[in-house]
């Protein structure tokens, strides 16, 4: 290689860059090592994951290094050296790979939270950069990641500078023909590495990384720059900007069959009148609490042995408890939207960024004479929540601007228990009016930056367990305070998560990120009962209306879980979706055959081929429902203007 100093420089640069990518992957591995059960996973499988990572790292490295390589190879055919070219190449490499390493550093906390490699989904809140930046800066663990990142970046600069100190001139130059052959062969190898595969049919894809039964090790092999660029390219494809999973007419026909609509009465294909029973209306107040990150996996009732949610566990045994309910997506905006308006999440689409009206819970109750109020701990403009909710018949928005400045403890505003304490006077005022009220709460404490008030003393030592204890305790305080108010016995309390947490993830879609407790608590009106049928956030609005025995036009994909049953429920994971019943999970990705797993038996083997009929039915169900929602969005069918 002494006769080819230019190629030697490139190879050393490659080695440096791949080593740094390896360091970031190693850090991610150790931050998530609990996901690797070494009783089930061999060391060879772990090594294979890192080898797969090198393949993806090489793709990104090759794309960035291609131009510098061409410049260095071409310059090697001239006897004179051009320092300016070398300098330009140095800064090209340093700047672009610094950006790559920034993405790799950001990917670690992103993955820790979302159980997904970095993508354009990380920029869903780009219109609130100050809020997001402050949230990051107030989370101590991000500084721990910043330390090794800074060290890596400094080392990268110094080692790269040393590599570029190589003298590119050579006393004994090889023959021109040999030089051309070696240079072309080297460039050919680079192009193959960029493609990632030697097979002619397809270059390397995200699905290439999925080689084992361990979902974490599959994801570990990916490069976050690759997943970011892939998600961006896909988002720019016109075919991906709107959902086109199945023909609109076929989807509508299928969904009408699922919902039992024989003769559509409205302009919307899924709108149907829901009449009240012969009994009088049950116009109780409704308090709907959307709990940040409250996965069932955190509850003792569902097997957690740390006793983190004693109140929620106790409440679930005193209420109507729906044990097989799933959230639509894995973002808070998905949870707010699907809970209140009964439509699923559509991949990376943000349903509240644009003002659009829906026949949702707030509008239906408003038409029945309810006042409507939304409580949050922080800035109500985040995710465009306030504007969107006000456009959908929420009269009052209580947010950080309403609380004393002294009570604001972080970017996420006031602690949960303070929001609940503050709300009591507001609810008392609403109760004095000659109308029932809908009060929706969005908690935030179980989301970084974590803040636990000094007056709460958790039993756990781990901060993530401490915050769950605090969140549960805050709910207990709210119910205790509410029980002392005159309106308590005339109120239905509903508890649901915005999304869960990716604990014990066994599949490419972490079920713990979607499995949520759903509790209907009305101590004077509901005797304890457990519902085992499958359901979702999208069913909460119709179920509440059914409990209240109020007539309404159901122009949603939700059903009344007390009176109706559904075959399956859809869950969304940004770039893929899942379809579940009480035993099986179907995962559907673009350009890949769906995979079917018996999650009830914790099976990791894809059983699609053994259950093709069931898998096809589930796939059609999911695609039809998602396609109908997309059709309604594009054709202005989300709102029925007539009176209910």
Describe the protein in words.
The structure is a single chain. The chain has 644 residues and is of the alpha/beta class. The protein has two domains: 5-236, no CATH class; 284-568, Alkaline Phosphatase, subunit A (3-Layer(aba) Sandwich), CATH 3.40.720. Helices cover 43% and strands 11% of the residues. The protein contains 18 helices and 15 strands. Strands 2, 3, 4, 5, 6, 7, 8, 9 and 10 form a nine-stranded mixed β-sheet that branches. A four-stranded antiparallel β-sheet has the order 12-13-14-15, with helices on one face. A hairpin with a 3-residue loop joins strand 12 (569-572) and strand 13 (576-580). Helix 1 packs antiparallel against helix 2, helix 2 packs across helix 6 and helix 15 packs parallel to helix 16. The longest helix is centred in the first third of the chain and has 33 residues, at 43-75. The radius of gyration is 28 Å and the shape is elongated. The chain starts with a helix and ends in a 10-residue tail after the last helix.
Count of separate DSSP helical elements: 18
- Overall geometry comes to elongated
CATH H-level name of the largest domain... which superfamily?
A: Alkaline Phosphatase, subunit A
CATH C-level name of the largest domain? Alpha Beta
- The percent range for helix content is 40-55%
The total count of strands amounts to 15
Please indicate the percent range of residues in DSSP E strands (runs of 2 or more).
Answer: 5-15%
Largest sheet: 9 strands, mixed
Please give the radius of gyration in angstroms. Answer: 28 Å
Contiguous runs where pLDDT drops below 50 for at least 5 residues: none
Terminal residue distance: 80 Å
> Average pLDDT, to the nearest integer?
90
Number of domains: 2
CATH architecture of the largest domain: 3-Layer(aba) Sandwich
CATH fold descriptor of the largest domain: Alkaline Phosphatase, subunit A
Structural class assignment? alpha/beta
């Amino acid at each position: 290689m002494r006769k080819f100093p230019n190629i030697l420089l490139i190879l050393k640069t490659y080695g440096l860059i791949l080593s740094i990518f390896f360091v970031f992957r190693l850090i991610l591995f150790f931050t998530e090592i609990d996901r690797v059960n070494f009783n089930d996973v061999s060391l060879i499988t772990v090594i294979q994951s890192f080898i797969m990572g090198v393949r993806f790292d090489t793709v990104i490295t090759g794309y960035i290094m291609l131009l510098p390589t061409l410049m260095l190879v071409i310059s090697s055919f001239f006897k004179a050296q051009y320092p300016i070219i070398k300098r330009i190449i140095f800064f090209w490499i340093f700047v672009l790979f610094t950006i790559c390493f920034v993405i790799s550093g950001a990917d670690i906390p992103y993955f820790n939270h979302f159980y997904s490699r970095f993508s354009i989904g990380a920029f869903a809140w780009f219109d609130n950069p100050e809020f997001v930046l402050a949230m990051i800066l107030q989370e101590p663990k991000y500084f721990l990641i910043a330390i090794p990142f800074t060290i890596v970046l400094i080392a990268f600069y110094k080692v790269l500078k040393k590599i570029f100190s190589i003298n590119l001139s050579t006393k004994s130059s090889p023959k021109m023909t040999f030089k051309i052959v070696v240079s072309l062969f080297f460039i050919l190898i680079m192009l193959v590495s960029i493609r990632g595969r030697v097979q002619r049919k397809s270059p390397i894809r995200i699905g290439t990384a999925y080689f084992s039964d361990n979902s974490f090790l599959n994801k570990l092999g990916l490069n976050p720059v690759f997943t970011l660029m892939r998600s961006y390219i896909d988002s720019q494809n016109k075919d991906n900007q709107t959902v086109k999973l199945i023909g609109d007419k076929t989807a509508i026909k299928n969904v009408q069959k699922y919902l039992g609509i024989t003769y559509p009465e409205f302009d919307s294909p899924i709108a149907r009148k829901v009449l009240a029973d012969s009994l009088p209306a049950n116009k109780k107040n409704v308090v709907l609490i959307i709990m940040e990150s409250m996965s069932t996996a955190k509850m003792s009732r569902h097997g957690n042995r740390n006793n983190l949610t004693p109140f929620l566990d106790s409440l679930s045994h005193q209420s109507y408890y729906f044990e097989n309910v799933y959230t639509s997506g894995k973002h808070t905006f998905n949870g707010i939207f699907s809970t209140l308006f009964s439509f699923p999440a559509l991949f990376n689409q943000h349903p509240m960024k644009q003002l659009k009206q829906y026949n949702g819970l707030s509008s239906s109750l408003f038409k029945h004479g309810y006042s409507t109020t939304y409580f949050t701990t922080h800035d109500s403009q985040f995710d465009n929540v306030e504007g969107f909710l006000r456009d959908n018949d929420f009269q009052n928005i209580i947010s950080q601007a309403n609380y004393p400045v002294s009570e604001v403890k972080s970017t996420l505003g006031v602690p949960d228990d303070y929001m609940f304490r503050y709300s009591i006077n507001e609810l008392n005022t609403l109760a004095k009016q000659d109308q029932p009220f809908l009060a929706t709460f969005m908690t935030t404490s179980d989301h970084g930056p974590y803040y636990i008030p000094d007056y709460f003393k958790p039993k756990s030592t781990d901060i993530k367990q401490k915050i769950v204890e605090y969140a549960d305790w805050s709910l207990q305080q709210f119910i205790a305070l509410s029980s002392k108010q005159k309106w308590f016995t005339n109120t239905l309390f509903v508890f649901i998560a915005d999304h869960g947490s990716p604990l014990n993830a066994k599949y490419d879609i972490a079920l713990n990120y979607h499995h949520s407790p759903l509790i209907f608590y009305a101590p004077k009106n509901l005797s304890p009962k457990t519902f085992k049928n499958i359901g979702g956030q999208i069913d909460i609005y119709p179920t509440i209306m059914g409990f209240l025995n109020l007539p309404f036009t159901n122009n949603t994909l939700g059903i009344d879980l007390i009176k109706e049953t559904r075959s399956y429920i859809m869950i969304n994971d940004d770039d893929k979706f899942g379809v579940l019943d009480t035993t099986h999970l179907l995962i559907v990705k673009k350009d890949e055959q769906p995979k079917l797993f018996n999650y009830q038996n914790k099976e990791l083997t894809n059983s699609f081929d053994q259950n093709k009929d069931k898998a096809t039915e589930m796939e059609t169900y999911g695609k039809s429902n998602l396609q109908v929602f997309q059709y309604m969005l594009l054709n202005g069918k989300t709102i029925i203007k007539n009176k209910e």
